[in-house]
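Attaching the record inline, Q. Sequence:
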Amino acid sequence: MKVWVDKFVMFKKNYRLTTSEFSEHFTNGKKFHSDHLTIIYKEGVDTKVAVVVGKKVAKSAVLRNTIKRRIYASLRKYQLEKNVSFGKLIVIVKKSYNTLSRKEAEEILLKTIKQVIK
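Structure, as predicted:
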């Protein structure tokens, strides 16, 4: 029996921003806006990521968590494939992101990340 293991899972806890890091980075980071996402970025050698999905985007906690997991997985997949460091990154999802298909959402996320990390 072959067991399928997905190596593109969420970031481990030490790769996610803490509350104090989030607050500091939120005020001091560079902000990039797109139609579906806002990304706050600060260069660095280590990768620290946070994803914010508010109640206005999805009323259900299950849907908000699903969106977060998908974004974390897409970022992790991109990081492993391209072997890049994101620095400190906060992804804030806008309401229009919820209307996108899974494939469109991932393409838009990665396109926006590439523009930001240049």
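The first helix runs from residue 19 to 28. Confidence is low (pLDDT under 50) at residues 1-5.

More tomorrow.
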